[in-house]
Amino acid sequence: MSILSGKNILLGITGGIAAYKTASLVRLFVKSGANVKVVMTPASKEFVTPLTLSTLSKNPVYSSFTNEDEDTAVWNSHVDLGLWADFLVVAPATANTLSKMANGVCDNLLLATYLSAKCPVYYAPAMDLDMYKHPTTAQSFEKLNDFNNIMIPATSGELASGLVGEGRMAEPEDIISFIENDILGKLPLRGKKILITAGPTYEAIDPVRFIGNHSSGKMGFEIAKEAANLGAEVILVTGPTSQTVSHSLIKVIPVVSGQDMYNAVHDHFQSADVAILSAAVADYKPKEVAVEKIKKNSTSLTLELEKTKDILASIGSIKKQQYLVGFALETQDELENAKGKLKRKNLNLIVLNSLNDKGAGFKGDTNKVTFIDDENKITAFELKSKAEVASDLLNKIISHI
Ligand code: CTP
Hints:
Blueprint: E1 8-13, H1 22-31, E2 35-40, H2 50-57, E3 61-62, H3 78-84, E4 87-93, H4 95-103, H5 109-116, E5 121-125, H6 129-133, H7 135-146, E6 150-151, E7 155-158, E8 164-168, H8 172-186, E9 193-198, E10 203-206, E11 209-211, H9 218-229, E12 233-238, E13 250-254, H10 258-269, E14 274-277, E15 284-286, E16 305-307, H11 311-316, E17 323-330, H12 334-344, E18 349-354, E19 366-367, E20 369-373, E21 378-380, E22 384-385, H13 386-400
Parallel strand pairs: 1-2, 1-4, 2-3, 4-5, 5-6, 9-12, 9-14, 12-13, 14-17, 17-18
Antiparallel strand pairs: 7-8, 10-11, 15-16, 18-20, 19-22, 20-21
Helix pairs in contact: 1-2, 1-8, 3-5, 4-7, 9-13
């Protein structure tokens, strides 16, 4: 999944021959899962039609402050467009528009939108080589750089004039990867590897039966998604669950038993920067696993159980620089028990779920948690969605690593 998935991209098109390439650019943005709206300068409509772009973007195309085709005039609000956008991409960006952007000129809808947008702005210059080299263009670039607008550099090659040199708009594929890399590079967890466990474990009794629990895996999956959205490379070791995730930064390792989970966690822990163990690992497993299905021959059956390995404690005892997070589910003396676990398992942070709180715990979509860290800082949260709890947790981790 692209980092652009679900993002609102406002594409500003200006009047250069490279405008014809914006049809593929819109198609690629849409393919990457982004929502696309297009604002055109009047001159750009000579090079590519609004109908092409509205068809590809599946949205109306804006080019003037009012909608001339309507009987009753409709105001196209540049402020609303600017607020809607997660990113404004001006491509192609002509020397004329760049100069206007650099100097606060506001004589069309695109420029008004640019001036009111608070989101990051990318621009892909496209012009003839002499214009590209002209000192006024260099000045525009400098000013736009001071405004934190991001240039997607033009490339060298044959230009529409027949001249060969710098000034060709970057190809649509390159514009997309430039933006993706720029966004990824700025994410706070970029370059960090996060190991996460999720879901229940199943401990075999015989070939068809097991001891398990009701953990849905939702909490761990939400943490994995949020961590990947913040740029981390995620290893998600999960017990049997109906949860699914598809993200280029998440590698899912499905396991069944606590021993499988233990092995997978130890395979990846040394190279991890952060480990968050949210799985509900069975505490006990049958001492012997019957080779054949157990028949109901007697009126009662006694299973002898033995303790499983404590995965969290085992990595706590070998941890070096890693930031280690565990979960605790308590029903009494909650804070004291959780603090004890934090110390015993050598954790940096423990997330306490209290079963006494309505809406908290295993199965639902919400959770009510308290963070206790290794400096004894205690933060209690309201009832929140598991996605929000994941976000709180990762913000806490980011502030520490
Ligand atoms: N955990 C683990 N391996 C186990 C058991 C637990 O990694 N075999 C982890 C869980 O993923 C969780 C934390 O340890 O992060 C929970 O600790 P645990 O001691 O099991 O606490 P509770 O489940 O609350 O159980 P109890 O209080 O009965 O010890």
